[in-house]
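quick one before i forget lol
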Amino acid sequence: MIRLLLWLLGGVLLGGIVHLASVLILPRMATQDAYSRLSPLAQINTVTPIPAPTPEKAAMPFMDPAFAMSVCRYDLSEGPLKFSVPVSQAYTSVSFYTRAEVAYYAINDRAAGRRVIELDLMTTAQRSDLPDNEEITAADRLIVESPTLTGLIVIKALAPEPGLLPMARNALAGARCQLQGN
C-alpha cells in the first residue's frame, strides 16, 4: 500500500512539473503571437486600422465588434516616438505592449482629461539623453518608457451602438505614431 502511494505521489509530482514547464515555455514558443499576426497588416511606426471581426475571420482572437481598433507596431531603435490620438465621443483607450505581449502602460480618455491623448514613447536610455528643461514640466509632457525597442500600441474606440461604428473609426483615423524628428 505504501509503495502504491509513493508511485501516485511521484506521478502527481512529475505531472505538476511537466504542467508548470509547459505553461512557462509554450508562450515563448508560439509563432502566432499578436506581433506576428499583425506584421502583414501594420507597418512600423504607422497607425493602421484593423478590419472589423466577422464570424469567419478576425485579425486577433476575441475581438469585440463594439470597438473600432487600430494598432501601431513601433520600433524605437531610430529614436523616440510622438504618439497622439483624438478621443471619440464614447470611450477611447490606448494600451502599450512589449514584443512578448507584456502590457506595461495603458491610458484612457478619462484619465487623459483632454480631447487628444498625446505622449512621447521612448526607452529608458533615450529618456536619460533628454536635456533637462525647467520650462517643460511633467504636466506638459507625458513620457512613457518602453522596456523594449519594439512592441505594439493598441488603440480602441467604443461604438455604443452599431450605427456609431463609423464615428469611432473616424476618431481613430486621426491617430499618429511617428518618430519625433518627422
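fyi The chain has two domains: 1-30, 34-179.
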